[in-house]
Amino acid sequence: MSYTIKIGMFGAWRGNSYIDLIAAEDPSVIKIVAVCDKQADKLDHVKGLADAKLFRDFDEFIEYGREVGMNAVFLANYFHEHAIYAIKAMEAGMDVVSECTSAATMKQCVDLVRCVERTGRKYMIAENYPFSTSNLEMKHQIEGGTLGTLLYAEGEYNHSGNLEELHHLTPSKYHWRAWMPRTYYVTHAMGPLMYMTGSMPKYVSARAAHSNLLEKIRDFRPNDDGMARMFCEMDNGMTASFTGCTAAASDYSRYRIVGDMGSVEQGGYTDGKVRVYYFSHTKPEGVEDQVHYVTPDPASWGEKGVKAVKAGHGGGDYWIVQNIIEYFAGGVTPFFDVYKGAAMSATAILGWRSCLNHGENYKIPDFSSEEERVLYENDDATPFPDENGEGATLPPSTMYGKYND
Fold first, then answer.
1. Nearest-5° angle of CA 98, CA 101, CA 102?
2. Given phi > 0 = left and psi -120 to 50 = alpha, else beta, which region is 358?
3. What pLDDT, in 10s, does the model give residues 173-231?
4. Helix, strand, or coil here: 62?
5. Residue range 262-287: average pLDDT?
């Protein structure tokens, strides 16, 4: 029996690229039936989308969805509010795709996982960076087994801008971007490392570095640390070191996986290629050079691989849509399920507490274990104020509070 994914998009700005990608798919497989954004101007570019009704209120959006058989919701709303709306959607009988992060507090991580288990709905993270063509090639190299025992992994995500751009991205005093600590936007640096190596974080310790440049714009962006780096013990025995979203003066993001026989890496300096290194005595048969560069071939991933290169984020956005189809319509569970999503969020949240406590080590709960997650069921500490500037219980920068004791 055929199954059509009737999906609603919540968040028309970030959701725009996914709307276009979904619209290019067979409508008998997946189609947009509704779009919701509280800002009317963000809906302007989707007014011509066939058969999709537009909303500015989430509850009305969900109620309409019930009427027309909407069975999935794509969350592309504000960064720190995904868990709230994911729970509402699942309790309304809809599957959920959450873009970038699962939850902003430990309590939300627990509530989210329990909701998935209670409702039986499908839930996935739309973390797209692991599926760029270069990162897929790195995974291919790792899975070849020629790197030996994996020892450590590194991930770095850089995304800053000039003053005008930062103002544009922070349209109000209490917008989430103004208050987000540097560890919180962790998925683009951490996610690829988890995916490439098939690993999960067990413990996290972190440090942040203050930026004098960003301190000059503290009046509208109080999170004036330039970077935070997290250090994790992973469940496959290796260590992993990665950033959140940094404001460092670097022009590319990069990833590196190192084993005791060889290593692979890619970043802006490799120009889309993957750098592979072996010891002279560990080179696989048929490999002539200790150091060589592999140019990823999109065709090696079939017809979809060729289509992917035309999409955003190095092809990652395209693969997310394919994961949605395979999961919601075909039952193929994606790598980034609710447990991995909660683990990434917990790494970011507890990583920030580590920054505020001079690198203290924190255990990441196994969110599949009620015994471990119950410890955080009432932990709603957050750096994010509400629209009235109230409710934040953690500082957004290491220049505040306990860190300077």
1. 70
2. left
3. 999 999 999 999 999 999 999 999 999 999 999 999 999 888 888 888 888 899 999 99
4. helix
5. 94
Residue type, 317: D
Sorted by sequence, the CB contacts under 8 Å of residue 245 that are 6+ apart come out as 157, 158, 159, 180, 182, 184, 185, 188
CA 147 to chain centre: 27
Side chain identity at residue 274, one-letter code: V
Q: Which residues contact 4 (CB under 8 A, 6 or more apart)?
A: 27, 28, 29, 30, 31, 329
* pLDDT at site 48: 67
State the Cα torsion 342-347-351-353 to the nearest 10°.
30
- Residue 316 CA to residue 314 CA, distance in Å, equals 6
CB 71 within 8 A of CB 95: yes
Residue 248, token pair as written in the block: 């460092």
Q: What digits encode the pLDDT tens for the residues 331-359? A: 999 999 999 999 999 999 999 999 999 99
Domains present along the chain, CATH in parentheses: 5-128 (3.40.50.720), 130-302+338-405 (3.30.360.10)
pTM of the model: 0.95
- For 38-57, the pLDDT digits (tens) are 988 888 878 767 789 999 99
Q: Which residue in 86, 116, 122 sits closest to 103, CA to CA?
A: 86
